[in-house]
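BACKBONE GEOMETRY TOKENS:
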Amino acid sequence: MADTLEFNEIYQEVKGSMNDGRLRLSRQGVIFKNSKTGKVDNIQASELAEGVWRRVALGHGLKLLTKNGHVYKYDGFRESEFDKLSDFFKAHYCLELAEKDLCVKGWNWGTVRFGGQLLSFDIGEQPVFEIPLSNVSQCTTGKNEVTLEFHQNDDAEVSLMEVRFYVPPTQEDGVDPVEAFAQNVLSKADVIQATGDAICIFRELQCLTPRGRYDIRIYPTFLHLHGKTFDYKIPYTTVLRLFLLPHKDQRQMFFVISLDPPIKQGQTRYHFLILLFSKDEDISLTLNMNEEEVEKRFEGRLTKNMSGSLYEMVSRVMKALVNRKITVPGNFQGHSGAQCITCSYKASSGLLYPLERGFIYVHKPPVHIRFDEISFVNFARGTTTTRSFDFEIETKQGTQYTFSSIEREEYGKLFDFVNAKKLNIKNRGLKEGMKQSYDEYADSDEDQHDAYLERMKEEGKIREENANDSSDGSGEETDESFNPGEEDDDVAEEFDSNASASSSSGDGDSDRDDKKPAKKAKIVKDRKPRKKQPESKKGKDPNAPKRPMSAYMLWLNASREKIKSDHPGISITDLSKKAGELWKAMSKEKKEEWDRKAEDARRDYEKAMKEYSKGDSHRGERSKKKKKKQEKVVKGKGDKKGTTSKSASSKSPAKGMSDSFKSKEFVSSDESSSAESKKEDSEDEGAASPPPSSEDSASGSD
């Protein structure tokens, strides 16, 4: 037989609500983990007194009773699982799993039995319904009547608020059955009564939620917040977790109390009680108990007289009374050295604390997200500016939390933290894609001045200028990064060239008109290397030699793996910073060695560039010759058509002989018509031929 049994989608009945979770049975006992709150109920095997199997609304249920009177109910089992559970109880707990069915007769009279913290209304031997007395908020009596009031259940649409029992009078002297019934209920009910003196009182504490200043009175079973307008009584049983979080300014502390069920004020629910303390506030505290009682109840965790910081005293007292651990931030450190990240959630600015087992955001509204309920996280660019990013968290229930306006300097630290906790990252993709997106954030840091980065940029500009000079004759085009303003430059360049062409034809204009085209012609001259850019945007030639690297880049490529091995887990941003520091601290002799290597690489590049340029010029000459041949063929066709028109128009040889001695600017009236017809023919052929002169017409007539 297996040592453990596990069941998913099991529901635990707590104060009238069904909380889903996971149930695990082992040799040591029974463990149930609530999926919503993460709270764990642990029942030791030695404490189990009885196990009952019965049919309920959600299928079949398991009721466990302990020796100290506690009752635990779990629903959602299948009928086929009874044999497996029964054998497990016999083998490991030495208990017989009894089968008991509920009475469904519909009678409203019967017998009330009090067993532990449970009120059972039975008809004969079968139970009709059961009421956990911890659900009772108030018990009042009347004539032969007892009224039970219950805590409101916020998770249910409809809640049972009141039940009345009619108690018939008996003939027994000296015992009132109504009062006896009420005392049995009140002894186990969750009724908060401020009887007796408080253990201690903290005056005028600043509370962020609910907002205001409150006196906190510490009682043995509950916490009493007394303010000017509202009072709250918080049982210690409703406290889930305690958090002690340092503020980013290192001068204040948050003390957060997580509550389930929450405290209520009208329609508002407060799931978290957040107190804000200054680190400079000190207090001397004296407990309202004698030393023997303090030692017996708290077992050394508290003493009668204590002194220290106010936040330390409050957290110490709460830890002892609630008997829960205080959660503090782990080893996460942000860009500024703080253990939190400044961000915004729902249009309110606050602080996000990465913890060892989850995230908590304070303070408006406070949010606590455990790692085990996170489906994935996502890093997204900020919607308004590139100087920040958004951190999105989606839970397994489909709830999405977006923490926006996080400074991009925090990206590396937060990404490494999420990666170390093995959370699913939605936009991670492949490993290469992840590194690429990470580099994009890291390289966009413009605030930090890096001397070696500036030097690399200067060397890159020098290489670009050399490459441009060498490519002017060969037609090689260098790579250029995308510039949004480049299109406007191209438009201006076309306008300038048109302006210079029109100005060259207007030489007879005034001096004022001559000055403006001269300026524009000068601008065109400065931009001469870029005139061929629109024609050569086909892409860079893959056969072209690669540019040489600088001395620093050669050293970085050779030393990158050594730096990674010396600093395991170093991020890309920190690696580049570390490399800059090492290069700066390097001796002059070692740098000269890398400078020589860079100089050799530059010479090899220039040599390869010359050979590449020669081959490119030969290819250019062959293409020019081919183009000239094509132009001759087209021109020959146009000449044939022109000769036919010349012979047709030359009918008077005497006139042609006399016109042959006139200047070229003179055009006779007879020749104008023939010139126009020739012009039309030449335009139809697509070849540009000059208008025939008088000499040509004379030779044609001969």
About this structure: Residues 133 and 187 are 9 Å apart (CA to CA). The longest strand covers residues 252-265. The mean pLDDT is 75.
